[in-house]
Amino acid sequence: MTGGDPHRHPAGSPGARRPTPRWDLGRLVLCAETRPLVMGILNVTPDSFYPPSRASDPAAAVAAGLAMLAAGADLLDLGAESSRPGSRPVSAAEEQDRLMPVVTALRRETARPLSVDTARAETARLALAAGADAVNDIAAGRDPDMLPLVAERRCGLVLMHMRGQPANMQDSPRYADVVAEVAAWLAGRAAAAERAGVAAAKILVDPGIGFGKRIEHNLALLANLDRLGNGRALLVGASRKSFIGDLTGAPVDARLSGSLAALAAAFAGGTTVVRVHDVAASVQFLDVLAALHAARRPVVEPRAAT
Predict the structure, then answer these.
(1) Is 213 a catalytic residue?
(2) How far apart are CA 207 and CA 255, in angstroms?
């Protein structure tokens, strides 16, 4: 499965996008050849920070997920516990009661890839058994059973950088060099996953935009994405986040334009997957950006006079 126009350009040609690693999910392999793959956000929660992303019941969640796939999403990311700044954890039982009916129903309806956004190995195990293809772990394997589980199931894995917990992550985060520190931390967690038996091709790393970062940290990370992956596939989730509001004054329901600007940075940085709320707008934006990039022509130097 590939994102955007499948036609390839020779490496180094004006139309070439910087090469990006593939993401091996076991039953299929995703490759962002001409643009990042679009992951639609589906929250089975009552309190996620962007209200239109919330689904009130399993039927509504399934309908919303299928609508995002119809709008061009390459895969879906299902979450049942809010991780917005200041949020408090729910019990494992509550997370599973919200999540499992939706995973099961969506797997019946579509063969497209499904990721589950959970930091609990217990929840991930149930979701993978129900047909999920990947685990998006904002705690990057803090649960000691998570990495061995992913290795056993040979599924995809997202490892995200976060300082602290959602409840306290925005309490005065500080970095001497946020790009170098996040890159080193992600490399360390990816190495830990490999030591646990997870194949490198199954790992995405995520700098965690908005998770324990001030506005200047988020901007530095987005402007230097090519320095973060250390050759690994990269996921970026900046959709409608608070740094856009901090920059522009826009409330969360008016941050689509800023979110698309962040997608441009993700495209330029060679990102493999972007996690978004607004699937149709994001797909259109990235398809046009990829077409413009492919249409670039080489600069022809004038011939020296003889």
Answers:
(1) no
(2) 20
